[in-house]
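Pasting as-is:
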Amino acid sequence: MSKGRLEAFSDGVIAVIITIMVLEMKVPHGIEAAALAPVLPVFLTYVLSFVFIGIYWNNHHHMFQAVHHVKGTTLWANLHLLFWLSLVPFVTGWMGENHFAPLPTALYGVVLLMSAIAYWLLQQCIVAANGDQSLLARAIGSDWKGKLSPLAYLAAIPLAFVNAWISCALYVGVALIWLVPDRRIERRLAVDA
């Protein structure tokens, strides 16, 4: 089965997710700088979520560069990932509107954790469809970022009830480690070319 439709559909869904997030932001009432203060938490959560969605889009794109064909299980695993990513606008808005209150901050972590798990499952389905010696399987390697991220989310979820800022720091930390471009697939593509 061709991977083109899966990639195009995923790109469209991710574009809609980003659009929904930006449309949820409300314009401040007033023209002075102080009018921005009430919307600052919403803006900060938007920036963080935009970065996360961008990271998923970027990694999804790179991953599918290493894929030759997909199976039905890959399609379902991809939909599973898109489901969790589609919840990002909801938890982003809830956390921002409630100024990083414990429950919304913890639920934000749950959605990030489930997105990470869904991405891992998608990766495993692709490897299963393309073989243990496929380009993707060889490129993944130890995947320390992929293992560290869910652990950070698992820690951040209960820590939100202790101090939500610790959870937010963990979320930002995970985003920062993923902002450094992951060149494993690009390197493997260059070697195999």
